[in-house]
């Protein structure tokens, strides 16, 4: 039985020669794929603005965003229009990948996105484009082969003896045919492989890369006049923005939603992002104008004559979060006989938003007098499980 399975595996691997994929390598048409962790992290918006400013969105066909979190699709649809948002479970991957690390699963899924181009760039949501983009920076038109880059030491899968790539830090151009070959050949290896480093290693071994560059590899200056990539992690002693590379991975305390909030880093980098990329990308939904609150629909509120979305922002804990929680509980108990549980708070420049879940029906002896004495009226608007508190009611 073991021999039979081994023979079947060999047949599967040798179903076609990976060098046959070479004929499909080009940048005439290519897409961009972003594996997204949290749709409410401001990183995605900054990255798309950088792509807009520096010309990448003018040459890519589609931008795909692969999501896995609950509410992610709805959250992105509230903020953006025109992005191809795809849930990981809706991608028809023909293998059992239950053993694959969550950080890597979207790299396995990308070549199986229905309709994706023969070649696609793939990079994280927190890697900005810092200089003007040209196709020649990712593809050698003379050799008709792509360049490839390594981004440090972040190892999230087996590389089978090949160089680590750390694809969670920076973008590379991927050929769909060749990546499918790698996945079909190595999908059942346990512990799971990092398909990107195995892809790069096997392509390089078969002379299918124009060049493969290391982290901060100065040889790339011959191609673009600048280095391809650098990283700035505030939890790794990068405290001030100042970059002259093509792409920069920016994350850490005070910047990313999954890290600690630190006021100094937040202020420094938020100001830099706003100055560098002040203009919206083509995907951002621009707010409607308003004169009165009732003119704003859905999860928006009228701020400086613009209907601003309040179901977004950065995670925070407001000083009066206990009062906000008590107000919501009082309101829903008194009017609806329902319990309420708080999921999260979000900081906005003009107030606080709170995501909550309405629970089961409850019995209540609350009197009208008790409600009127204790209810503070902090939440001014609510919409689809979100409540909004203006700055004047935030302590």
Set out the fold topology:
Blueprint: H1 2-13, E1 31-35, H2 43-53, E2 63-67, H3 72-79, E3 84-87, H4 105-109, E4 119-122, E5 127-129, E6 139-140, E7 145-149, E8 172-175, H5 176-186, H6 195-205, E9 211-213, H7 221-224, E10 229-233, E11 247-251, H8 263-276, E12 300-303, E13 306-309, E14 314-315, H9 321-336, E15 338-348, E16 351-361, H10 368-374, E17 381-383, E18 386-390
Parallel strand pairs: 1-2, 1-4, 2-3, 7-9, 10-11
Antiparallel strand pairs: 4-8, 5-11, 6-7, 12-13, 14-15, 15-16, 16-18, 17-18
Helix pairs in contact: 5-6
Describe, in short, the structure shown.
By secondary structure, the chain is of the alpha/beta class.
Structure, explained:
This protein has 395 residues and is α/β, with parallel strands linked by helices. It has 2 domains: 17-224, Spore Coat Polysaccharide Biosynthesis Protein SpsA, Chain A (Alpha-Beta Complex), CATH 3.90.550.10; 295-393, 2-Layer Sandwich (Threonyl-tRNA Synthetase, Chain A, domain 2), CATH 3.30.980. The chain contains 10 helices and 18 strands. The protein has helices at residues 2-13, 43-53, 72-79, 105-109, 176-186, 195-205, 221-224, 263-276, 321-336, 368-374; strands at residues 31-35, 63-67, 84-87, 119-122, 127-129, 139-140, 145-149, 172-175, 211-213, 229-233, 247-251, 300-303, 306-309, 314-315, 338-348, 351-361, 381-383, 386-390. Strands 3-2-1-4-8 form a 5-stranded mixed beta sheet. It has a 5-stranded antiparallel beta sheet with strand order 14-15-16-18-17. The longest helix is centred in the C-terminal third of the chain and has 16 residues, at 321-336. Residues 1-14 have low confidence and may be disordered.
